[in-house]
Amino acid sequence: QVQLVESGGGLVQAGGSLRLSCAASGRTFSSYVMAWFRQAAGKEREFVAGISWSGGITKYGDSAKGRFTISRDKAKNAVYLQMNNLKPEDTAGYYCAVDESRHFYAAVEDRDYDYWGQGTQVTVSS
Questions:
Q1: What is the mean pLDDT of the chain?
Q2: Alpha-carbon span 108 to 31, nearest angstrom
């Protein structure tokens, strides 16, 4: 059974940092693109960042550029999201996802992803 389990969310003040983790089990995803999305209350799910199978190619949504960094550890079958200089508008549920059809460039549409975690909540206070 494939599982993606996110962790690392929580409550942080504006300007603070959090590091999200996503651990995969049930199969290895080291050959595929992995990504982070987020969904705020009442809003559509939004692409945050994606990373290639090797970790050498990354892609960021506009809201993440310059503040967030995605990385992965193939040996641990995990992907991470380092979030710095957090803002109240970053408050959302954060989800990791795997796209089995891509190896290099992350898609920004959530419909392209095949596996999803249950999410971890990030709340940024002003």
A1: 96
A2: 18
